[in-house]
Amino acid sequence: MNEMLRGASRAVLFLLLFQGLGGDGSEFVGDGRDFGGDYSKLSGIIIPGFASTQLRAWSILDCPYSPLDFNPLDLVWLDTTKLLSAVNCWLKCILLDPYNQTDHPECKSRPDSGLSAITELDPGYITGPLSSVWKEWVKWCIEFGIEANAIIAVPYDWRLSPKMLEERDLYFHKLKLTFETALKLRGGPSIVFAHSLGNNVFRYFLEWLKLEIAPKHYFQWLDQHIHAYFAVGAPLLGAPDTIKATLSGSTFGLPISEGTARVMCNSFGSSLWMMPFSKYCRGDDVYWKHFSKGNGGVHHSYHCSEQEPQSNYSGWPTYIANIEVPLVHDSAGYDAYPSLSEVTHENLTSMECGLPTQLSFSALETSDGTFFKAIEDYDPDGKRLSYQLNRLYHSDPVLNPLTPWDRPPIKTVFCIYGTDLKTEVGYYFAPSGKPYPDNWIITDVIYEIEGSLFSRSGNLVDGDPGIASGDETVPYHSLSWCKSWLGPKVNITRAPQSRLSAKLIEQIPGLQVKGRT
After folding, report:
1. CA separation for the pair 196, 214 (Å, rounded)
2. Distance in angstroms (rounded) separating the CA atoms of residues 26 and 20
3. What is the pLDDT of residues 202-218, one digit of tens each?
4. What do you get for the CA distance between the two ends of the chain, in Å?
5. Coil, strand or helix at 123
6. Is 248 helix (H, G, I), strand (E, B) or coil?
7. Alpha carbons 356 and 201: distance in angstroms, whole number
8. Which uninterrupted H or E stretch holds 75?
9. Mean pLDDT of the 81-100 span
10. 3-state SS of 8-71?
């Protein structure tokens, strides 16, 4: 992911410099909505991605059997030395309560601030380069003469759901003030650079802003404060990797077991923020609900077009999750797992008593809660994740983020993402015979590779592959959703990279790039 970000950042920097943020005052051609002022007055605001902000301790925690303790302002995310020497202490500082998203009673962590919070997660001679995120990009900006106050980072606690970001940290209030301060400081609007989950954060901010500003002033505020938006590696329709993390864990390359990683990830409310969902299903219009019925107890039900039942996989290349579960009957003759028969009976591929049964779930069934409800009887995280999904997303008072995103009302929008890399799009799970949290194993993985689907063993798989593959983390289907935003003026540039086979820069109505990469 860091390699993808660095490659995409080169393209972003090219466009950034071309627009004149470096202070040369050069012009560019727009669609009639271009910024008519001095481009040296623009600011760049960076919204980092998942796990891309440093977290620091805000507690004093003694760690037995370890010479290293946690003191206020010590790095938690990420300090690999303490992770290796005092993993139980480290977990206390990083885990959240899965139900109310509060800190551990003995330790709490909070996001760091400023550019240093997003440049290197674990600074050091060896660990620094391995955990570098935005450092190289900031260095390029300095080399090209961009002013120090022109680049602003807005770190956030990436463990929290959008609702909790505002409830606990007032993050979206602070983000609004950041845009307003940048305008007052430099005299011009800002360019937003969002990476990965940062795009989801920015989307939520735009919806939250609708409820904070009078309707007649909303677009005026956007035009005044935001000139352009760069969506880098945006999981616009989610990412199947989220499902893998909920069942088998994602270690982020850290020296921890997958079971430990699973417990950690499933305690974060944000882990479900990038769940894959159907492009054919939308939620209720919350904006008008606030003016008509109020927002108390709002539940965003899904409204699907007729294309959803007609599509095989909710528009995705294949089923997101395929899971083997035992179909067991108790001695009295009743189903031992009633919720399974209620929710997913039609998905059963075998009804033989006592034999494993494979259930398959589309993107819609993962995002609407069907998947987690189906595994509640087999996994303690099933109920916890169902609770999080309903409370933090389906019942969010501003937006159900697990719905397709229409073109944001920003003057100029760029989509930048990697393509043609081997990317996971579906998984097969089976019981491992081990206790929680290691109770599932991945028996097979489905990859998209340049327009085809293959299993982990290399066999060709049936499905609906796209014309290209994704960036190694997010499938092409999700990355390229911004094509649905296309208008009359579009430039598409493919920029080959040394490691990445290509970078696709898609300009959505606004700026016309007068140059070559």
Report:
1. 30
2. 6
3. 999 999 999 999 989 99
4. 22
5. coil
6. helix
7. 40
8. strand 75-77
9. 93
10. HHHHHHHHHHHHCCCCCCCCCECCCCCCCCCHHHCEEEEECCCCCCCEEECCCECCCCCCCCEC
